[in-house]
């Protein structure tokens, strides 16, 4: 939520993720949940990761945190945090990083808190473990932390159990826990999805205020483009395990370049449009991550797709403005307009679906437009 | 807000459904009572979509469910095309409910996981007829096609083989198969991704015009409600704050609570003015012990002593725009609420 910082700091990024891949070996085959994501995050900055369910955004943040355990998980690439590769660290050393250096706020405050332990102890647990403070000092710290997340009557709240608090209050407690040891990096994985808009607004404000105060870096994972707007410096849009567009948040909205990002933005109902405005739905469904289509993974649903999109996977290309996109026909280019006109004339189903707002469930990957 | 009054109700002759002074209370034991809905009056015209918005716990689902007597309200009246639903006996109510169907929030848990889609959608027909299997199959196929599901593929499958959006469409097919008049949609798109949400919203609009439906649409997302509704009612803690034609509401919100909701709603626009410093302390008050007077006053920046003493009643602002507030943000044309 801090002001956009385009110039990188001299001391290098706090977190540098390079070509991160997480595959799950399943009976049906290899599921590529995250397939080559690269980004840098500097101290005090916020990165938004946006995508629909199943796009790999949660697996990405959990992979960096080393929370994807199990014999069938294959993680490759690098996640350099203060020049240490988190992916190569023994788990014993990770436990010194969890909470102290990197903390996480989860989506569901109902299940991320222990239902049989009082709030005060849950908040001070990290502090007692990592900073070795006494029980009495920990109590004082817990009260202070609960006050900093604006929980009323913190002295009373520390002896409450999670079920005695509302969803919004519980999420504030989760934030207090995450902030307890003063981490340098905070992962917020859909922190407000289960909450009302008014509560969501407050929780996001609270995260932003604490972030500025502590000069902490934050990764905000969400499915809602409205949440990243105005609150993150950079945004990555994920689709089927890949980062398809990556740029400063303002550019993502104002110079949208990937057709998927454009489609997401268009499908959101807006309050400045009159009632009963037809929404531009996206045809089809996200691909099966085990049997991915050849070429661009968005091609079967893309209204601009041409022959090339079904055959060759577009590389991530960064332009002179630092705007990275993986698309052969980026939005706003002459080629893109030509592709749209051609598909519309040819009556390609997923193009018509966008034009007319129809539902198309299964878009066969072979509906390639023939050359006229 | 959170006021009484019926100035916003229209001529009973012109509406399809009219609820007056609905009260729904749930006893907690030891004399304590959850006042989920405290005197709400609403009406909906044939072919209209009424949106109900508010935070969780404001009673929007309870209000909508009480319209179809699930459960019946503690007090109040609900008339549906001339029939008083609250006074019907069980059998008559069962028959009346075939006209009033419901779509639920969670598309996956609202379908029985052990049954095939064909049976799920045909179930209402097995109860109400036509009892001829051939006719049933025809109707089921027609409904599934109307919601964009291929019956040839879907009939023998079970709910887990479908995505959330598809399951929601199957629930809609099930609700439509008896050819109902009114459909209560209880947050039907809250659990879905935005791209799927757009499909469902477009489809509801199409079905509404194809089958002449009347919708009561509950949601907490203001943009979704605006997109689908003709008229919107804003609720807070069991009371109505504001009722308005939907475009008018979004242009001239009159209730401070509506303003708060608008200010909190995330916009997909980084240039939008965003108040990123406001962090309220505390929680919304409990419906067990709601504040006196205007129920919103504890969170309202314009609240005065009068708000604590006197409950505001619905007043008219403009043609189809009503607000229950002592200090509305838009000047009020009539000084007192007019009881219909």
Apparent shape of chain A: globular
The strands making up the biggest β-sheet of chain B line up spatially as 6-7-8-3-9-10-12-11
Mean pLDDT of chain A: 87
Using the 3D structure, state the CATH architecture of the domain at 1-43 and 57-81 and 230-266 and 273-340 in chain B: 3-Layer(aba) Sandwich
Q: Helicity of chain B, in percent?
A: 25-40%
Helix content of chain A: 25-40%
Q: What is the CATH third-level topology name of the domain at 1-43 and 57-81 and 230-266 and 273-340 in chain B?
A: Rossmann fold
The end-to-end distance of chain B, rounded to whole angstroms, is 19 Å
Could you report the average pLDDT of chain B, rounded to the nearest whole number? 89
The Cα radius of gyration of chain A reads 22 Å
**SSE series of chain A:** EEEHEEHEHHHHHEHEHEEHHHEEHH
- Spatially, the strands of the biggest sheet of chain A line up as 6-7-8-3-9-10-12-11
Number of strands of chain B: 12
Report the major sheet of chain A: 8 strands, mixed
- The Rg value of chain B, from CA coordinates, equals 21 Å
Q: Could you please describe the fold and organization of this structure?
A:
The complex is a heterodimer of chains A (372) and B (340). With 372 residues, chain A is α/β, with parallel strands linked by helices. Among the domains of chain A are: 110-182, no CATH class; 275-356, no CATH class. Chain A has helices at residues 57-64, 91-97, 109-112, 119-131, 135-148, 154-157, 167-179, 197-214, 225-228, 249-254, 259-267, 307-311, 334-346, 349-356, and strands spanning 15-26, 29-41, 46-50, 73-81, 84-85, 102-105, 185-189, 217-222, 234-239, 242-248, 317-318, 324-325. In chain A, the strands form 2 sheets. Chain A has an 8-stranded mixed beta sheet with strand order 6-7-8-3-9-10-12-11, sandwiched between helices. In chain A, strands 2-1-4-5 form a 4-stranded antiparallel beta sheet. In chain A, helix 8 links the parallel strand 7 (185-189) and strand 8 (217-222). Chain A is globular, with a radius of gyration of 22 Å. Residues 1-8 and 364-372 of chain A have low confidence and may be disordered. Chain B has 340 residues and is an alpha/beta fold. Chain B has a domain at 1-43 and 57-81 and 230-266 and 273-340: P-loop containing nucleotide triphosphate hydrolases (Rossmann fold), CATH 3.40.50.300. Chain B contains 11 helices and 12 strands. Chain B has an 8-stranded mixed beta sheet, with helices on both faces. A 4-stranded antiparallel beta sheet of chain B has the order 2-1-4-5. In chain B, strand 1 (17-29) and strand 2 form a beta hairpin. The chains are: A alpha/beta (372), B alpha/beta (340). Chains A and B meet through helix 7, helix 8, helix 9, helix 10 and helix 11 of A and helix 6, helix 7, helix 8, helix 9 and helix 10 of B.
